[in-house]
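Data deposition worksheet. Section B asks for the primary sequence of the deposited chain exactly as it was used as input, without tags or linkers unless they were present during the calculation. Section C holds the resulting structure in token form. Section D is free text for depositor observations; keep each observation to a single sentence. Incomplete worksheets are returned to the depositor.
Section A, Depositor: J.P.
Section B:
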Amino acid sequence: MEKIKIGVFGGSGFYSLLEKAEEIEINTPYGKPSAKITIGEYAGKKIAFLPRHGEKHQYPPHKIPYRANIRAFKELGVERIIGPSAAGSLQPGIKPGDFVVCDQFIDRTWGREDTFFDGPKVAHISGAHPYCPELRKLAIDSCRGLEITTHDKGAVVVINGPRFSTTAESRWFSSHGWEVINMTQYPEAILAREAEICYVNIALITDFDAGLEGTRDIKPVTVEEVVRVFNENNEKVKKVIFKMIEKISELGGCQCNQALKNAFF
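Section C:
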């Protein structure tokens, strides 16, 4: 099969991207990915799309087969992944409908299979800058080109889920100055780094988290509100992705494809 260099993950409420596409089934050493992978074309480029929660949102965040998803893209030849996701805001200045192109994460998950190197071969990759700088710039420029309110950096706190935070937890996260909260960025981002694939997250802010309750009539997050805002902004997300795909072949100056170079003793 011809290599498919661009991969896209769909998040909550985002289950399809490409028209006139074919579905393929892949099995990996880590099992099957969340769903069949859709292969299509846009702007003369082959694209692979995979909804990370499955076609019917059947995988909760802590049960998503992250390793299989990344490995499946790797086997297809994917070199760059766009990973949009629904997220909550931890700061009043970041509002529902805004986009945040994250530059850091804080892992608050547990029990997830989060490395391809379980031994005897062991890699210690750098986690200092987990997101591809070139893809981040492209995402920011694409969002702003479409006049979407976009924050060009933000630390995402990744909680285990599937429950939302308590008010105390949320206030604690907010007090550190962290901007965004989500349930899927870990280990997806770091597994992409282990696979030496460029990766970017675009966080679509769907709600204010529980710690901002009582601030300017802000109410705690609910699934209903998350789905409503995500549906309202779904087309914006797709427009950003397509705009990025048009220019993505111009990239090539990052070091993501060398992440394992000095990772072994």
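Section D:
Helices lie at 66-76, 133-145, 167-175, 185-194, 223-247.
Residues 47 and 100 are 23 Å apart (CA to CA).
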